[in-house]
Amino acid sequence: MCRLFGLVANKKVNVKFSFSEADLPFKELGSSNPDGWGIWYYENGNPKISKESNSIEKSLILNDIIKQKISNIFVSHVRKSFPLWSDQLFFLFVIINTTHFIIKYFYLYLYRVLLFIIFHFIPIN
To answer: Has residue 90 got a pLDDT over 60?
Structure first.
């Protein structure tokens, strides 16, 4: 399961403590979520994002970010991908769970097409 980290502070800070030194550092969650990570923060008033598809524990880029970058907002995640068959099952669940919406919007679309045909191609006397 993916994990999310967020930090909002009233002054600019780095995330070294939260990622490396806390009782349960966020970086340790990378061992059970080895398929990628990302971090978003502000630098000089501009949003920055860094991400990789390898484990957060093996990243050299992240080590520089958590030690050097300071911001008042950080958002980060670690992810674990699933086998192809589980993605297909999830897709099937989404389709089954949203069928009533698909049918509803199909009829709405059909209704709009009929109105278009009526008002543009059928002459009114």
So the answer is: no
